[in-house]
Amino acid sequence: MDMIHITMPDGAIREVPLGTTAAEIAQQISPRLGKEALVARVSPIQGNAAPVASADAEKSPDAAPEARLTTATNGEGFLVDLRAPIDQDVKLSILTPKDPEAIQVLRHSAAHLLAAAVLELFPNVKLGIGPPIDTGFFYDFVRAEPFTPEDLERIEKKMRELAAQDIPNERKMMPKPEAIELYRKWDQGFKCELVEERAIEPMVSFYTTGKFIDFCRGPHIPSTGRIRAFKLMSVAGAYWKGQEGNPQMQRIYGACFYTQQELDAYLHRLEEAKRRDHRRLGQELDLFSVQEEAGPGLIFWHPKGGLVRKIMEDWLRDELLRRSYDLVYTPHIMRLELWKTSGHANFYRENMFGPVEVEKDDYQLKPMNCPGHILIYKSRLRSYRELPVRLAELGTVYRYERSGVLHGLLRVRGFTQDDAHIFCMPEQIESEIEACIDFAFAVMKTFGFSDYVVELSDWDAKHPENYAGSPEDWARSTGALQTTLTRLNIPFKHMEGEAAFYGPKIDVKLIDAIGRPWQLTTVQFDFNLPGRFGLEYVGEDGNRHQPLMVHRALWGSVERFFGILIEHYAGAFPVWLAPVQVEVLPLSEKFAEYGKKVGAALKDAGFRAHLDDRNEKLQAKIRDAQMLKIPYMLIVGGKEAEAGTVSVRQQSKGDLGPRPLAEFLSDLRKQVDAREL
Ligand SMILES: [Zn+2]
Ligand SMILES: [Zn+2]
Fold first, then answer.
1. 603 catalytic residue (yes or no)
2. Which of 47, 307, 422, 646 is the most buried (most CB within 10 A)?
3. pLDDT of 65 above 50
4. What pTM, to 2 d.p., does this model score?
């Protein structure tokens, strides 16, 4: 019998008969591994042919997400079915649910299970594609009637039935013409199209799950029995191949994990995200609105939201001055010519509002603050003695975003950046970068974030022709970013080739209370604009030099950061930020006078207090204040009036008992001054 050699990840070599499968090897290693295995990764040790179950269609039929399955193994071979016979010497890894790639294979198999179930219940649907996604899978169908929530329930039930039958996912190869004929007879036009376009080899790979048959490169898990922790989530519209104008399909989304526990945790996270949705909370807490009458993506800050914004901005402006920035203001609209000089009218055109004509001259609503700050820098000749020049502005900009991508405060058309531009000499960049990073971390600490991810985006050194700036510029600036992060002991990811054409940058993503990352701070070099605008300074040598320029934003924008704060705190802002810090609740109308006195004392001490003197039951008043997420409630009745005390109730801790008013005031002072979280 012909034997082949299988090299395992630990280096051990097993000699097995030609045609042995990964499933058999897993079983030999241990019955437990045999049970846990989902899929295998092989890489041929020598020779040229793909070893097993050769990929017939290099381009996956299920488009990009599925293609990821096989390309993710980059350089380390590719994924194959456990049941595929191995026909040459290979390195073999057997993947279990611990492996993220194996979970994607499970999810892809769940997509097939969904299609199989839909076909049982609605035999006339036309099939699109069904790739795995980060948390599950989807499949696209064409059906005259929309799928209802009841349909989804039935489909999910059918999926469970089919899963329980542990139906094998079998791979079949057939000649391309036969495959097209099969789909033609079955009247599956989209699938015909896929086979025509994507199958480039004479034999085409199919997978069957019971009666369901799909043009698919795979791999798949051996059978449906392992698909247990899933849930159909929603139906959305999608265009065939994602192209507007193509036939409309119904996309059924499902969540899928290996264990029920993981699925439950995911569903809980979704619930949490819904509970924290800043658009809903923005309305409930009366913080902001978007008005159809005014236009999409434009934010109205209501009094309470405006108050939080004022507190945020006060903090920021104080910090800016303390950190030796200069505060400036620049116009919202400037000549289009200026944007031609900066290059934005060319490479940024698609993100800009159209020009406005005034006295036969075109003006442009600003999408960025940089040119304005540059004009201030250029307004007189600068000496090396005044560098670095740090110009900061809470600068409102307008960008054209498609209405489809607008999202509450997070993706808008008009917003205020906490923008700054630093003009400095080469020898100053390290200390400037360090100061920017220190500022960014002060923002995170002050506003209550402790987890973050830092990315350093570098150029692709093999293609300097695609970038502005000299190799020395890039080396020096990237070096400064890198050295600073290392010296400050901040772990970061190096993203090669990810930089914009005009310079390297650092991005800080913070992680919120429920583990979601948010892009926040950017510190970005610019080797383009100083040259375009002919920026100069007179050096110590008396000669003119070009300064280095850095753009940096810490919050990104006030709107976006406010949205993130609302979600992070689920609307319950820390007391120093809360629009109303204390709600005073008289027990009944009889004690309204004392209530007023307490309210006045709070206001005199500089706190934001509100007196609820409605003729309502105390319980109702407490409930309302709780709904508004006001940090403190002070309940005042006869006993309190007599003793000069207040009964304190805290938003998250509940009843704290009676305290002398003066003591409450001084405690609150301490909390607010320390910006306690
Ligand atoms: Zn497939
Ligand atoms: Zn800028």
1. no
2. 646
3. no
4. 0.79
